[in-house]
């Protein structure tokens, strides 16, 4: 369908005059003369075949039609301005991603070179659950912990994962960790964000130690790092540590796992739904999660243990 649009210069002049309530102030805003603004408004009134302003002494007042029309135009032009700025800035400004340190180090950073604007990504990390208050977090996108809805924020479940014990090869050899019961005498790394050792021991069919030995860390990444350094055994997220296991720095212990759950989501302001960089980042990271077999909406979660399905 062919659009029947009025002259844009006339629309812009009318909307500015209606918004500021003065032809002179609209002219200053648009860097035009007052005469030019008046001419554009008359051209729009001729196009619409209706009066948009009426003069009251030295002032102008909107007609009822003009008031209704100007309100809709202001909304449209504000959206047009925001969209234009996002497209114009897309190639220049950094793209700010806020996430947990474990997600950044073990999952996001190794894949960034596959994102078309990966060189523009600026990463900030949080010890706890990353804030989704976009008025204060200085982020374009947050990799949100879990998938709880947040008012004014789009939350797209990204990644699901189970957990299982991991340790350094040296720790495994030193402690002789051959069966799940052996963990009852090992130093266990605890995660204060979501400690799931009780769930794992239940899955393994083992009575957990009454007084589990081991330090507590603010997040799973620090617990996993401690395990890498030979300090004990951590309960790691499969989706995050697969590459570390492949490198041989850590060893997975036993087949028992916790129930998979959505551990990360992509979150961004609802007002940025059509932002081209936000959309491309979201589509890219969802595709990466799907290729790795850890996407939240995949039909079956594929554990890194060969042949194991949950």
TrEMBL record:
Pfam families: HTH_1 (PF00126), LysR_substrate (PF03466). CDD domains: PBP2_GcdR_TrpI_HvrB_AmpR_like. SUPFAM superfamilies: Periplasmic binding protein-like II (SSF53850), Winged helix' DNA-binding domain (SSF46785). One of its GO terms (molecular function) is sequence-specific DNA binding. The keyword Electron transport does not apply. Residues 6-63 form the HTH lysR-type domain. Keywords: DNA-binding, Transcription, Transcription regulation. GO terms for biological process: DNA-templated transcription. InterPro entries: LysR-type_TF_proteobact-type, LysR_HTH_N, LysR_subst-bd, WH-like_DNA-bd_sf, WH_DNA-bd_sf. The keyword Transcription regulation applies. Belongs to the LysR transcriptional regulatory family. This is LysR family transcriptional regulator. It comes from Kangsaoukella pontilimi.
């Amino acid at each position: 369908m062919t659009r029947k649009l009025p002259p844009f210069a006339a629309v812009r002049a009318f909307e500015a005059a209606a918004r500021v309530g003065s032809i002179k102030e609209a002219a200053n805003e648009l860097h035009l003369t007052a005469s030019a603004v008046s001419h554009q408004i008359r051209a729009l009134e001729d196009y619409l075949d209706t009066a948009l302003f009426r003069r009251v002494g030295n002032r102008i007042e909107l007609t009822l039609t003009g008031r209704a029309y100007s309100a809709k135009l202001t909304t449209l032009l504000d959206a047009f301005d925001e969209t234009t700025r996002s497209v114009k800035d897309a190639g220049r400004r950094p793209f700010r991603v806020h996430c947990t340190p474990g997600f950044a180090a073990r999952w996001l950073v190794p894949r960034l070179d596959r994102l078309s604007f990966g060189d523009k990504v600026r990463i900030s990390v949080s010890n706890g659950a990353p804030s989704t208050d976009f008025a204060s977090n200085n982020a374009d996108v947050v990799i949100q912990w879990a998938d709880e809805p947040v008012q004014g924020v789009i939350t797209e479940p990204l990644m699901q994962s189970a957990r299982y014990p991991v340790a350094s090869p040296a720790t495994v050899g030193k402690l002789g960790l051959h069966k799940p019961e052996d963990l009852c005498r090992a130093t266990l790394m605890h995660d204060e964000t979501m400690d799931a050792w009780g769930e794992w021991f239940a899955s393994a069919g083992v009575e957990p130690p009454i007084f589990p030995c081991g330090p507590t860390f603010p997040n799973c990444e620090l617990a996993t790092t401690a395990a890498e350094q030979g300090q004990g055994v951590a309960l790691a997220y499969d989706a995050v540590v697969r590459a570390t296991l492949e490198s041989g720095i850590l060893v997975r212990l036993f087949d028992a796992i916790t129930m998979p759950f959505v551990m990360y989501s992509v979150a961004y302001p609802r007002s940025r739904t059509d932002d081209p960089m936000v959309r491309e980042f979201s589509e890219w990271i969802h595709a990466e999660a799907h290729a790795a077999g850890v996407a939240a909406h995949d039909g079956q979660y594929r554990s890194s243990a060969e042949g194991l399905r949950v």
